[in-house]
Amino acid sequence: MKIAVSGKGGVGKTTLSSLLARYWARKGYRVLAVDADPDANLGSALGIDTSDIVPIAKMEDLIYERTESKKGTVGGFFKMNPKVDDLPEALGKERDGVRLLVMGTVKKGGGGCICPESVLLKALVSHLVLYEKDLVIMDMEAGIEHLGRGTAQGVDRLVIVVEPGQRSIETAAKVRQLTSDIGLHKVVAVGSKIRNSQQEEFLVNSLAGIPLIGVLPFSEEIAAADLENRPPSLDDPVIYRAISQIAEKLEG
Length: 252
Fold this sequence. Notes:
Layout: E1 2-6, H1 13-26, E2 31-36, H2 42-46, H3 60-67, H4 87-91, E3 93-95, E4 98-102, H5 116-130, E5 135-140, H6 149-152, E6 157-162, H7 166-181, E7 187-194, H8 197-206, E8 212-217, H9 220-228, H10 237-251
Parallel strand pairs: 1-5, 1-6, 2-4, 2-5, 6-7, 7-8
Antiparallel strand pairs: 3-4
């Protein structure tokens, strides 16, 4: 499976991504968790020390080696199909059956960026989605910057994480439009920080055609884990029940 997770900042998409990754790893899958959010913190949610990890977008020597052009270059000649198939194994850092890959982001000026680092990242995402044999979970920003039209066809589900609030719903609608523009129609939603049935009903009535496949209730364990900078316990009964139901829907 190839799962992309998106949503407004702060709604809990990194928490959901990390819980799904650890749940499937516990079930015996080889899981590759990809941090494609500029505010990279998937590592801490997985319990992986990222202090020695350099995001791929900042690896100047690697970018030059694979594209034959220096990071930050705009225009000129460089490889548009760099070799990337060895990078998940070479650059990933593993714990408890989950391998983490930190992508980084490209700082853009003007209307876009056709530059070596963006070419390398998009080639890597295409490889992960279309050819990687492991189960891949991508924790993405609110946009879908790393996904291209061809890559989108290989994504099994794009999960938009939403909390009960109008701004979160508006972001979900924008993400849904972006995915539609590139031909990705396998889009679902997961509710986050849900305290009662009224909030869940609000999401069902507000998502305008995006199916809600499950909810992650508000959890004292998740809040405590965030404060203590550690992964939430999968053995917490509320968390395990919710994440197993969401995972089963995605598997189905």
